[in-house]
Amino acid sequence: MRIHSSIADLRAALTGRGRVTFVPTMGNLHAGHISLMEQARAHGDTVVASIFVNRLQFGPNEDFDKYPRTFQADCDKLAAAGVDVLFAPTETDLYPEPQEYVVEPPAIQHQLDGEFRPGHFRGVATVVLKLFNCVQPDAAVFGKKDYQQLMVIRNMTRQFALPIAIIGGETVRADDGLALSSRNGYLSAAERVEAPRLFRELKRIRDALRQGEQDMTELENAAVAALTAAGWKTDYVAVRQQADLSPPQGIGVPLVALAASRLGSTRLIDNIEI
Ligand code: PAF
């Protein structure tokens, strides 16, 4: 696996490499990331991953400084997964001057996760557009675990007519249902035992809807109440339309139940398609 930190070196290395599939990450890789790499392999001749902890998408009181940085272990995992090229820019490589031109996503950036993480999706969209320009991939793979992020990137790519196919990768879960996430490492042993409750509540919503329940607000409120009773502090539990994450407007449209809740000081997100 070749590792490049400069944009110019990366572009030179990718010249003539056939169909390029790209998987951007912030590192601290787990089996969920590796499954995205495997999916990327199926879509292209050359798989490019990136590792960059993007300051622009973290709020002032968020975990940018303590975000786990495990570069050597990540390189070993990427090489073992058959990744061809790793783009690992420093902040100076990617932001040699303050990034004053930004991508401003539409109103959805202020809803769901965006309501609780102001500026987050602006930071994500901006860095992803920049990474796309550096790598110039034919396809890019993003995990469905960050469902709202996937939707923002899919719509940005379509509206800017970027010639990149956006592929959603299924969430990888531990045996007890907890979605794999770099932030799971913040959980204490007791919190780790409790953490699968978030997905259990989402499954409860899915099952009730499948059985014909129609009062989505009631289902959302019941999930929040169950989480609160178990000591969680919930930002939102919401049933939305898959396509644009707007509130459900009709029967039979594909839905997704999404949640973000805090266990101790760790904020977990998850979702389930219905
Ligand atoms: O999902 C992530 O790891 C990040 O948001 C991404 C897409 C790499 C942008 O920094």
From TrEMBL:
Query: What InterPro entries does the record tag this protein with?
Result: Cyt_trans-like (IPR004821), Pantoate_ligase (IPR003721), Pantoate_ligase_C (IPR042176), Rossmann-like_a/b/a_fold (IPR014729)
Q: Which residues bind (R)-pantoate?
A: 57, 149
What is an annotated GO biological process for this record, any one?
A: pantothenate biosynthetic process
The enzyme's E.C. designation: 6.3.2.1
Q: Write out the catalysed reaction.
A: (R)-pantoate + beta-alanine + ATP = (R)-pantothenate + AMP + diphosphate + H(+)
Which residues of the sequence carry a binding annotation for beta-alanine? 57
Other observations noted:
The reaction proceeds by a bi uni uni bi ping pong mechanism.
UniProt-recorded name of the protein: Pantothenate synthetase
Tell me which species this is from.
Candidatus Dechloromonas phosphorivorans
